[in-house]
Amino acid sequence: MNSIDAFRHPRARTDDSLAERIRSMVRVKELSERDRRRVLMHFLALEDSDRLLRFGTVLPDELITRYVQKMDFSRDTVLGVYDSKLTLVGVGHLAFAPREALPLVTSATIKERVAEFGVSVSDSARGVGVGSKLFERAAMHCRNGDVDTLYMHCLASNQTMIHIAKKAGMEIHHTYGETDAYLKLLPANPASVLQEAVEEQVASLDYTLKVNTRAAVKFLGTLPGFKGE
Ligand SMILES: CC(C)(COP(=O)(O)OP(=O)(O)OC[C@H]1O[C@@H](n2cnc3c(N)ncnc32)[C@H](O)[C@@H]1OP(=O)(O)O)[C@@H](O)C(=O)NCCC(=O)NCCS
Predict the structure, then answer these.
(1) Which domain covers residue 214, as residue numbers?
(2) Could you point out which of 5, 102, 133, 143 has its C-alpha 20 to 30 Å from the C-alpha of 94?
(3) Residue to mutate, 16, 160, 166, 172, ligand 1, most ligand atoms under 8 Å from C-beta
(4) Considering the entire predicted model, what is its pTM?
(5) pLDDT of amino acid 25
(6) What total number of domains does the chain contain?
(7) Cβ distance 42 to 67 under 8 Å?
(8) What is the tens place of the pLDDT at every residue in 158-190?
(9) Strands of the sheet with 178-184, listed across from one edge
């Protein structure tokens, strides 16, 4: 059973130590061009209410498709969490912009660029730490990329996201039903660079293992007398 699949087990929701173990097993991987189709499937599976929280409006399928088609994996950083069936259950999008583009943070930094973060987690994988892990990894990536200000925009009604932002120590500003938050990041150091590299390596190995397991199960399923899932 995969970490995220395990959390779906009713016992996990009442067992703190099990939940904690599962949280520690969430792997965040940097996504690339070849993940584009799965990113699209992830967004299209979001309910209207989640689309509203993620994009600030209930984006119809056509606009989501256009949004994903235009995603630039070389300019932005897109982070993801896969479950054992290689379904993308969490996507974090880190876009970089000149600091003048985001008035709230313009005076908060002297760096040329700031980062804006958007995140979504599939309904079935919520509450296991996927959103928080994506956020933490995004913050680490910024820090290691000499960006010291991470900005986030969400609806003021988005209590879950505001909880995550507060937990991370973000400075939060509420205006007319919307919330802007930003986090000042420490400069990179050898430990933060190493930590990100190790996390990415582990997530890549985890992904490869899932791909190979799936291929093996598929192959075994073609053998007479073998019953797969
Ligand atoms: C917001 C979202 C990304 C969170 O993902 P997640 O994987 O469930 O988040 P996590 O499991 O890491 O953390 C959720 C935290 O919020 C808390 N929480 C859940 N519901 C809450 C609520 N109504 N009020 C306050 N806190 C809440 C949980 O207890 C948990 O806190 P903990 O880590 O201190 O125990 C997910 O709900 C989502 O995709 N929502 C729709 C899109 C969206 O809102 N995106 C954010 C705007 S960019």
Answers:
(1) 3-29+77-222
(2) 5
(3) 160
(4) 0.91
(5) 87
(6) 1
(7) no
(8) 999 999 999 998 999 988 889 999 999 999 999
(9) 29-30, 77-82, 88-98, 113-121, 149-155, 178-184, 171-175
Identify whether 89 is part of a domain: yes
Distance separating alpha carbons of residues 38 and 32, to the nearest angstrom: 11
Is residue 1 over pLDDT 50? no
122: in domain: yes
156 CB under 6 A from ligand 1? no
Q: How far is the CA of 164 from the centre of ligand 1 (A)?
A: 6
What is the CA(10)–ligand 1 centre distance, in A?
A: 19
Contact 91, 119 (CB under 8 A): yes
Residue 140 domain-assigned? yes
User: Which residue's alpha carbon is at the smallest distance from atom 1 of ligand 1?
Assistant: 161
In sequence order, the β-bridge partners of residue 181 are: 152, 172
- Asked, for residue 227, whether it belongs to a domain, the answer is no
Looking at residue 227, its pLDDT comes to 66
132 lines ligand 1 (CB under 6 A): yes
